[in-house]
Amino acid sequence: MQAWESEEFPVIVSARGTTLTDADGKRFIDGNASLWCNVHGHRHPRIDAAVKRQLARAAHTTLLGLCHPGAIELAERLAAMAPRGLTRVFLSDSGSEALEVALKMAFQHWRQRGEARDTFVTFGGAYHGDTLGAVSAGAISLFQGLFKPLLFPTVQVPCPYSPRDPAAAAIRTLAALKKVLRAKKKRVAAVVLEPVVQGAAGILPQPPGFVRAVRDLCSEAGTLLIADEVAVGFGRTGKMFACEHDGVTPDLLALGKGITAGYMPLSATLATEAIYESFLAPWHEMRQFFHGHTFAGNPLACAAANASLDVFRLERTLERLPAKVAFFASRLERFRDHPHVGDVRSRGLMGAVELVAKRPGTAYPMDLRMGHRVVLECRRRGVVLRPLGDAVVVMPALAMDTRTMGRMFDVLEESVGAATRA
């Protein structure tokens, strides 16, 4: 907070496409997709119009005991396009809450089946949100350390990524997971995974087949798989849902961020029919899922989400991604030979450049805030990015064209050079 008080920062007053404009009239390329949630660009006319139409009808109505057409339509569409078998949809209002819902559903599901399963297995480097249940399922000490006394314990297996040998790291993780599931077979409620890419850990990709292997181990052990696709869903990895890369259906799927194309808060937790049915009973048995927030499934947010799904179809967003992904990856690779870059990582339109004081992996002193310095240099040159420590994350909207993307990378190259020479 002390640094925040001492630094100047842009005050954004308008946005269109992939450009932000501040109060002084300076324009910036939004290379952060407004914290990874913008999909089709700012002020997309179809989404704008859908929100305005809904605003003329009703701005908000609760889902507690009532419903509205937008929520019904969205739930039907999500269930139809999600991995096969995810037939039930619970709407919330943030990605962190979507994960909280999944954790609570998994725990209550087993209790109502007569099994006292209370253990969640997580992965090193995981991030699942900032509310206490989501923090408990995470594995980044920066977010957990102070709050440890408030968190429920989990069993953690190693991070599935290592810059020196990614394949070997994934194999070690799967071996550790198999061992845990065998040792605690009747106690594990669920395995919680960010499929394909761990986001807040610094954009750490998993090799092809990893998610399938985790799914198979969960099925073998008779436990649930929770897939946290808050960051990686809605085209971010090149497919609508990251689990599709390995043809996997999780038992619970948490969605957020891109669900409204970055327009407003909304999230969803999708569940299988088997989980849904474990909550069915006469009222007096009290098997209901007692969870629901005021703005969950807000009509304006649902209107934006439905319009975003229309844009995916009409503009063939997913079909047009491969060329952009190839360009994105090729530009990131140019950083690999830089003397102050220790690793380059990407999957789909998610990328990171890991800065080091000296190769192969000598970290900069924390007080230098080298990642932040690079981001400030980018900002001076008209590009908004954000670091995760000394990993500079590049996360454009899916709608960003390759010309703008090229300019973004040119600025990042200049900025890495300027910051590391200083």
Can you offer a commentary on this structure?
With 422 residues, this protein is α/β, with parallel strands linked by helices. The chain folds into 2 domains: 2-30 and 320-421, Aspartate Aminotransferase, domain 1; 48-314, Aspartate Aminotransferase, domain 2. Helix content is 37%, strand content 18%. The protein is built from 14 helices and 17 strands. It has helices at residues 2-6, 33-36, 45-55, 69-81, 95-112, 132-137, 141-144, 166-183, 210-221, 273-277, 299-314, 321-333, 370-380, 402-421, and strands spanning 12-16, 19-22, 27-30, 86-92, 119-123, 155-157, 188-193, 197-198, 204-205, 224-228, 252-255, 267-272, 341-347, 350-355, 383-384, 386-388, 391-394. The strands form 4 sheets. A 7-stranded mixed sheet has the order 4-12-11-10-7-5-6, sandwiched between helices. The chain is globular, with a radius of gyration of 21 Å. The chain starts with a helix and ends with a helix.
Keywords:
422 residues, alpha/beta, Aspartate Aminotransferase, domain 1, Aspartate Aminotransferase, domain 2, 7-stranded mixed β-sheet, 14 helices, 17 strands, globular
